[in-house]
């Protein structure tokens, strides 16, 4: 059972932890609680934040104003506040061409899928200098059961005029070690990329525990590049 915010010592509450430790120390629910500010009569701010996150983690694109206001305790003002915060964050990330330079940066750009209860595959396309073009969620469900065909991945890469791609998928179990299927999929995409001249620059496995980079671990037999 989750603790209500009134049962949490004041120094351990989101706003106080933010002041003391900085934003990186807070969970996604705590960060959203800080944005919301306060809860409703029926629910405290952490409970509201958790309910909103359940929607955002399933499909951020479907978190419309109508969907958010269907949550008891989230009125139009709070829903607008949430949508505005996410839109601002998105615009700042791509302002003047965000350049992806490290696996850790890639992990930070995909924190939203670390807590998802099902496996999810994200695709990021970049240009020749490593500048961010677009991010998409391609699949949801176990990668071991879902066929990840390079054709779908590179369809979007070609559409974006991309030089390279990054793949990111989460392990809901928290385990960061790649499975044999993960390795096979990565090798297959890397080989297809070499033929097309659109290179797989890295593949990250992510969870709330951190990340595993195929490139950093020498498991990426694709294009040799210094961007990450």
From TrEMBL:
CDD domains: MPN_DUF2466 (cd08071)
Keyword Methyltransferase attributed: no
Domain MPN: 99-220
SUPFAM superfamilies xref list: JAB1/MPN domain
Keywords: Hydrolase, Metal-binding, Metalloprotease, Protease, Zinc
Family affiliation: Belongs to the UPF0758 family.
InterPro entries: MPN, RadC_JAB, UPF0758, UPF0758_CS, UPF0758_N
Domain of life according to the entry: Bacteria
GO molecular function, one term: metal ion binding
Keyword match Protease: yes
Source organism: Thermosulfidibacter takaii (strain DSM 17441 / JCM 13301 / NBRC 103674 / ABI70S6)
Name by which UniProt lists this protein: DNA repair protein RadC
Record Pfam families: RadC (PF04002), UPF0758_N (PF20582)
Gene Ontology biological process terms in this record: proteolysis
